[in-house]
What does this fold into?
Amino acid sequence: MGNKICLIAPYADLAELACAVGRETPIPFDVWEGNLEIGGAKAQQAEKDGAQVIVSRGGTASIIRQKVNVPVVEIQVTGYDVLRVMRPLIGAGKTAGIVGYFNVVKGCRYVCDILGIHSREFILPTDYTEIDWDEIRARLRRIIEEEGVDVLIGDTVAFANCVGNLGREVLLITSGRESILRAVEEAANLLSVREEEQKNAQRFEAVLNFVHDGVLATDERGLLTVVNPVAEKIFDVQRDEVLGLPVTTVIQDTRIDKVLASGSPEFDQLQQAPAGHILTNRIPIRVDGEVKGVVATFQEVSQIEAAERKIRQNLYGKGMVTRYTFRDILTRDPQMKRLIKLAKGYAKTNATILIQGESGTGKELFAQSIHAYSPRGQGPFVAINCSALPPPLLESELFGYVEGAFTGAKRSGKIGLFEMAHNGTIFLDEIGEMDRTLQARLLRVLEERQVMRLGSDSLIPVNIRVLAATNQDLRRLASQGTFRVDLLYRLNVLNLPMAPLRQRKADIAYLADYFLSRYQAEHRRRIEAIPPKISELLERYEWPGNVRELKNVMERLVLSAENGRIEADTVRLLLEEMQEIWGGPAGEAEVPDLLNGTLQQIKQRVIAQALQREGGNKSRAAKRLGVDRATIDRLTEE
It folds into this structure.
């Protein structure tokens, strides 16, 4: 393999001079001799041998351009070259006949005009195969005789073929050292740019070949210019067979031609392909404000669904990330807005926060938002309901255990939730339900920031932030002896009191409108906006179940609406039913009525009474009835 630059010299003197220049410059290049068709053949051979730029002169350069696929740099005829030839004609009163290819003739013409030399021109065709040298010599004789040409000027190639034996003085234009050096330097710069473009093209191709999305691109005519392997698979095509074809003939149901015409991008569009449904984005390629093509990316819907399932299983399934931020807290209530501002300030600290409020007021929503807003937002968020598990199981979940810690323990042991929350946040919901023994262990974690697994005798340091929530009065529980006072002090470093919905009148209609829109979309029903009369009914209700109850009521109203309208009578009946569940009279007088109806109705009435006596706390109601909380949730929703 030769050098990446090859100079094809049309005549021997130029080849010799080029070799001399090559010995003086650090730019490596080969020098081959060959004029016109011979030079073209040698250029083709140089390209096969690895040449990436060809340097030549005059007509030979023109012929080479037609025969190779690499750039061709022409050794230009400089002013110095022409002046060297023209100097003897200054003031001689002779007429010069300029014979050659256009670039040579043009350069000589300018010099003749400047020096005041009378000249005539004869331009040779650039297509060497069309030249009839006998006819050209005959035409030259006529011009010489008719115009009185005294001297013939041209380059060596032209003269070698047509000016011999014409009986006139001949001046040859040859390229000097500076012309060759300039052409070689231009070739080196062109080679550097070409190599950089090739590197970029290779990088681009590598990216296209390894991305998970299918990628297509077209030019301004809609002809395919890019098809990556994923796109080949999606559309069941071979790249080499479809490049250069109109995209509309290769892909069915495509709108790339429409985007090309309109110049407007299209995002997240479903499209049918041989591999199944795909999600596509189509973006116009703009150059100087004009659409010069379209690039489209494709994802198979089945792969998107599989990836989503994997993310949910690995992250949300483990409860290790948050789903909500402060932007998800919808409110128009000034008190709630102040609470959000306060919570944002608390989020920037590492202090423990106690969130207190009735069930359904959004305590976990605030906990997740605080974590997401905090410096620990990129760390894990671990949540657990302290009333959902019996004390022994809750202890093993929180602290983990080593092999053989108890009967049924895993051989490899188990990491606890405190360890999982390392460098993140742990959220202890319904902390008031925690057993006193566990309260003591939790207190030690808060004080020492160390945990000990069950069955182990070694401490594990943890970097955690603790958020706790309760719907109970912990001070009252502490005075009753069911909650440790020292733990209360440790938890209550910062406090967020959640206002019940009945104290946030401005939010009732606002949230009702939000839930109306949400459930319309979810259940695919079109419902008219809530009229002021119904908004007043909703605002007068006390909402003992808070936002959770409002959410339930709005879904029921959407599902029961007739003719796309929520009627005031329906709202009254539903609210009266909720009032009976939450606030009906208690006592022995109701016991006979409690046994009326079906078993399912009896269960629901029993649960309603238990919830009433426990202030709406589902966990305590479940404990009172000896069932789990899931049973309470299921029966109250039926």
